[in-house]
Structure formats: structure tokens, C-alpha cells
Specification:
- Helices cover about 80% and strands about 0% of the residues.
- It is built from 3 helices and no strands.
- The chain is an all-alpha fold.
- It is elongated, with a radius of gyration of 20 Å.
- The protein has one domain.
- The mean pLDDT is about 80.
């Protein structure tokens, strides 16, 4: 392997590991938000507070899902694979 290929392989592995870590953190955050949203609460909120909290949690979850989608690798077309 050439030095360029080795360097590119290391860069790809580093990016892949970083994306995997970010994905795991975001998935964990979504799980926590969902657990908080759907768990029974010992402290009762009035309906307005509960509605506001649900809206905030839904907004956070949606933002995290968008970020996760952005981190997904783009599909490689068959034409691109055949050229390399």
C-alpha cells in the first residue's frame, strides 16, 4: 500500500470512529428524553407545564434525529464502486 492509501485509510477510520461515538451519544440522549417523557412522574405537572415540556422534548428529539440523519454515510452508487 502506498503512503497516501494508508493515510486515507487512517483518516477514514478516524472519521468513522468519531461518527460512531456521536451517533451513540445522540441515541443515548434520545433514549433519556423518551424515558423522561413517558416515565411516570412522582411530581404532577399542571396541564400547561406538561404540554410545554412535551413540546420541548419533541423539539429536542426531532433536532437530534436530524443530526443523526446528517451523520449517516451517503449511499455509494454502483457506478462509483465499479470505477475504483
Amino acid at each position: 500500500m502506498s503512503r497516501v492509501s494508508i493515510r486515507k485509510s487512517r483518516q477514514w477510520a478516524s472519521k468513522s470512529t468519531t461518527k460512531k461515538t456521536v451517533n451513540e451519544k445522540l441515541a443515548h440522549e434520545i433514549a433519556q428524553l423518551k424515558r423522561f417523557k413517558f416515565a411516570k412522574r412522582s411530581e404532577q405537572l399542571n396541564p400547561q407545564q406538561a404540554s410545554l415540556l412535551d413540546d420541548l422534548i419533541d423539539t429536542d428529539i426531532a433536532a437530534i434525529e436530524v443530526e443523526l440523519e446528517a451523520l449517516q454515510p451517503a449511499p455509494v452508487s454502483t457506478e462509483t464502486r465499479q470505477k475504483t
